[in-house]
Structures are given as structure tokens and as C-alpha cells.
Design a protein that fits this description.
The protein has 261 residues and is of the alpha/beta class. It has one domain (9-186, 228-253): NAD(P)-binding Rossmann-like Domain (Rossmann fold, 3-Layer(aba) Sandwich), CATH 3.40.50.720. Helix content is 45%, strand content 14%. It contains eight helices and seven strands. Strands 3-2-1-4-5-6-7 form a seven-stranded parallel β-sheet, sandwiched between helices. Helix 1 crosses helix 8 (228-239) and helix 4 (105-133) packs parallel to helix 5. The protein is globular, with a radius of gyration of 18 Å. The chain starts with 8 loop residues before the first strand and ends in an 8-residue tail after the last strand.
């Protein structure tokens, strides 16, 4: 099985922690040159030094805040002037929790801009280079809510579904050029985002976080929450040559928790 990604450049967003960082780590281990993208330059400088360089690759980073569409667009447009991005991993923190009914319209607009519009600007910037070399991988880290909405995440459920359908459309449009587009859906994984969700559930139900954790684990056939590196491995596989015929899918990495196909 060919998993080698030497001589490939991957841009991984939201990659100073959590699932973005886990994906960057696994891509580097497969030989990829990894470009991290996040808003905190100090953290970027620290994290980029932790990535594997055993195949001679030199990693780097771009500074951009996903709350600023123009900043993200400027950063990527400048980078692709002199670099080809073979792999794009779209990822940013989810919107705050809350019911859909009580969400303000501007909350949906902000989330739409932070997720779909940034993703779209990044894709438009990198696809010409992918087409030129006949290889491209676009991965969107979204949520299992695209298959089964999660209670208390009204805005997130809505926007994640929009991203999933945008990606499926792109998969059809870009398939003839050797470019795949896939969504990877994290279940409960040990990340800062998961800690936030657990704390919110505990507060909303007036129970301890330990009780919430027990309830969550009880719903997972694997009997535990996931490890970030397990999620990163799934992302890295979809970026490899071995996954060249896999496109337009929503892949849950959730220990079997979802009750639907």
C-alpha cells in the first residue's frame, strides 16, 4: 500500500492543537512538508518544531485568524504564488453551543464565514496548482452532526451540514482532475473542543463532568473516547495515493457511536 507523501506539501488549518495538529503530525510522518495555519504565531513557532523531519522535509507556517476572511485569503493567495499545495486540510473551531431556535441570525452568518467561506477561499487558491500536477486532496474536518444533529449545537449543526454538501459538490467537479474531496467526522475525541462540549453538557444538566463522560462512553461501542492520533491517521490515509478512488464521502471516526450508516 502506497502511503508515501514525500515531495507533497500539505496546508493544515487550525493546526496548533487538537485534530488539526494530530493530522499535521501524521502527514509529516508520511513524508509530507507541512504548512501549519493558525492565528497564534508564538504557538505556530513552537508546534512546527515538533513535526517529523526524517525524510528531509522543511515545515513552515502561515499566520491568519479565521474570524477574518480577508486575512485568510491574503495569506493563501500569497503562499500559492511560489508554492503548490497538494493537500488542504480545512479545520477551525466550532461555533459556540446553544439551541438553534434561540440563535441570533448573526451567529449563523459568523459561523458561515468562519467555516464555509474560508474553506472556499482556500480551495479556490490551491486548486489551480493541484490541477497543474494532476494530484490533490481536500479534507474537511467537520462533525458527525452532518449525519445526526447533536443536541445543543444548533448553529454548528446547520453550518457543518452546509460544508458537507459544498464538499460533495466539489468532489463531483474536481474528480476528473485527480483531486479528491472528503469530509472526516470526529466523534468524541480527547481535545479542547470535546472538553468544552462536556463542560457545557454538565452545566446544562446540573451534573458533574465525570457523569457526562460516563454517559458519553456508554454510547460508544468501542467503550472509550478517541485519541487524536487515531483521527489524524484517518486523515492522512485519505491524503495518500492508496485513497485515490475515495472521494465525496463523510467518514466518521467515532468508535461506532453513530446509529446510522
Amino acid at each position: 500500500m502506497n502511503l508515501d507523501l514525500s515531495n507533497k506539501t500539505a496546508l493544515v488549518c487550525g493546526s496548533t492543537q487538537g485534530l488539526g495538529y494530530a493530522s499535521a503530525v501524521e502527514l509529516a510522518l508520511l513524508g509530507c512538508r507541512v504548512i501549519l495555519m493558525a492565528r497564534n504565531e508564538d504557538k505556530l513557532k513552537q508546534v512546527v518544531q515538533t513535526l517529523d523531519r526524517s525524510k528531509g522535509q522543511e515545515h513552515g507556517y502561515l499566520v491568519a485568524d479565521f474570524s477574518d476572511n480577508l486575512a485568510v485569503k491574503i495569506a493563501i493567495d500569497d503562499f500559492v504564488q511560489t508554492n503548490t499545495v497538494h493537500i488542504l486540510v480545512n479545520n477551525t473551531g466550532g461555533p459556540p453551543g446553544g439551541a438553534a431556535l434561540t440563535a441570533k441570525p448573526e451567529e449563523f452568518i459568523t459561523a458561515f464565514n468562519n467555516h464555509l467561506i474560508n474553506n472556499h477561499n482556500l480551495v479556490q487558491a490551491v486548486v489551480p496548482g493541484m490541477k497543474a500536477v494532476g494530484f490533490g486532496r481536500i479534507i474537511n474536518i467537520i462533525s458527525t452532526s452532518v449525519k445526526n444533529p447533536i443536541a445543543g449545537l444548533g448553529v454548528s449543526n446547520t453550518i457543518r451540514a452546509a460544508v458537507a454538501n459544498w464538499a460533495k459538490t466539489l468532489a463531483t467537479e474536481l474528480g476528473p482532475f485527480g483531486i479528491t474531496v472528503n469530509n472526516v467526522l470526529p466523534g468524541f475525541t480527547k481535545t479542547v473542543r470535546a472538553d468544552y462540549v462536556i463542560a457545557a453538557k454538565a452545566k446544562a444538566n446540573n451534573i458533574t463532568e465525570e457523569e457526562v463522560m460516563k454517559q458519553l462512553v456508554a454510547e460508544i461501542p468501542a467503550g472509550r473516547i478517541g485519541k487524536p492520533e487515531e483521527f489524524g491517521a484517518a486523515v492522512a490515509f485519505l491524503c495518500s495515493m492508496a485513497a485515490a478512488y475515495i472521494t465525496g464521502i463523510n467518514l466518521p471516526v467515532d468508535g461506532g457511536r453513530l446509529g446510522c450508516l
